[in-house]
Amino acid sequence: MINVTKSYLPDLDEYTTYLKGIWERVHLTNDGPLVRELEDQLRDYLGVKYLKFCTNGTIVLQLALKALDITKEVITTPFSYVATTNALLWEGCTPIFADIRPDDFNIDPDKIEALITENTQAIMATHVYGNACRIEQIQAIADKFNLKVIYDAAHTFGARYNGQSILSYGDLSTCSFHATKVFHTVEGGCIVTNDSDMAEKLHNFRSFGHKNDTYFSIGINAKNSEFHAAMGLCMLPKVPELIAARKMRFEFYDRQLDFTKIYRPSILPGVDYNYAYYPVVFDSEETLLRVMDALKVDHIMPRRYFYPSLNTLDFTFAPGSATAQPCPVSEDVALRVLCLPLYPDLAETDVNRIASIVNMVVASVPEIV
Predict the structure, then answer these.
(1) Fold that domain 2-237 belongs to in CATH
(2) Is 152 in a helix, a strand, or coil?
(3) Which fold has domain 239-364?
(4) Are strands 73-76 and 120-126 parallel, antiparallel or unpaired?
(5) Three-state SS at 170
(6) Among 369, 300, 298, CA closest to 340
(7) Phi-psi bin for 71: left (phi > 0), alpha (psi -120 to 50), beta?
(8) What is the pLDDT of residue 318?
(9) CA torsion 16→17→22→23, rounded to 10°?
């Protein structure tokens, strides 16, 4: 079976060394020494000012909304994993969907300004597939209308824009360290800020709003454990070689696929990509389904990522509306995009086999006249 992704695991002895230390200290969670060490190493690796290691990539979005006191309308993308929208809804916000760009599938800044109302408080954008949004345009709009900017940067670990970690942009930026990501801690995530006061606020929010018997604010349990931090400490030094291995497989696909009838989203100039995903777009949903069926015969499992367009889910409809907010580009792309398997030890022969099946199916589809 070849799945769309495969988690990388470090040497077991290396991980066990950290476990022995946990057993000796009997400090399992609650801001332990491995959590603090991982935070320090992540800050250094990413070149960011303040970073909090948390439970997962969804709760950090919720923390961002709470910390910025966002309770009303948030302009967001319909082309993302559902966690982006769920975090908004869970925190009582109203998602207002701006359509995406047809070239890179990130939120289209040209569609944002017309959606701003007196209730708009923030823009929450996703760097889709690890490729940066139009950061300067989004920030200019936010500055003009006094809005906060939150980036769901779940896919971006190790990727840079204009020489800086993509996580360094926006008022707050979040990342997922789920087992399927380029860098993982089995389960986990982080939230990044450039402001010291905000960092302290997030630190308190992450741990019920108190330290010992001193209470600072409301809070939630967003702490992560020493066991997850240990995995992160094993993984972090290997990220450059893992990205290099992903890049090699990405380029295998580029050489083997026939792009006369398919395409993949473009990478924004200035982005040093992390090769998190390999999405391809077909001429129709029918072709996509035929490709999936053909791959499945060979026990190859790609993923419709992202599908469906989030604005079409009935629980995301704006209050008082029984219909979706129209996002025609996202709705169209979501029907036709498929992520092919991509991970560091995917064999070149398997890449060639996958590409051959895709090419064969696409070539057999009659031209639309």
Answers:
(1) Aspartate Aminotransferase; domain 2 (3.40.640)
(2) strand
(3) Aspartate Aminotransferase, domain 1 (3.90.1150)
(4) parallel
(5) coil
(6) 300
(7) alpha
(8) 81
(9) 70
Q: What does the pLDDT read at residue 140? A: 98
Whether 2-237 shares its CATH topology with 239-364 is answered no
Residue 155 in tokens:
């896919």
Q: Which of 66, 148, 181, 201 is catalytic?
A: 181
Residue 322 has a pLDDT of 76
Sign of torsion over alpha carbons 340, 342, 347, 348: positive
Is 66 catalytic? The answer is no
Q: Which residues of the chain have pLDDT under 50?
A: 369
The pLDDT value given to residue 54: 98
Q: Are 100 and 327 in contact (CB under 8 A)?
A: yes
Q: Where are the domains of the chain?
A: 2-237, 239-364
Could you tell me the two tokens for 158?
């190790």
Give the span between the Cα atoms of 129 and 176, in whole angstroms.
12
| CA–CA gap between residue 233 and residue 227 (Å, rounded) | 10
Asked whether the CA dihedral 178, 227, 49, 210 is positive or negative, the reply is positive
Amino acid at 344: P
Token pair 């064969």: residue: 360
* Closest C-alpha among 260, 264, 283 to residue 340: 264
Distances in whole angstroms, Cα of residue 5 to Cα of each of 66, 232, 302: 32, 18, 8
Alpha helix ranges (H) inside the chain: 12-25, 33-46, 59-67, 82-90, 135-145, 196-206, 226-235, 239-256, 285-297, 328-336, 348-364
Structure-block tokens of residue 287: 């072709």
> What is the separation of C-alpha 137 from the centre of its chain, rounded to a whole number of angstroms?
20
Report d(CA 315, CA 53) in Å as an integer. 30
Q: Which two tokens stand for residue 307?
A: 């599908």
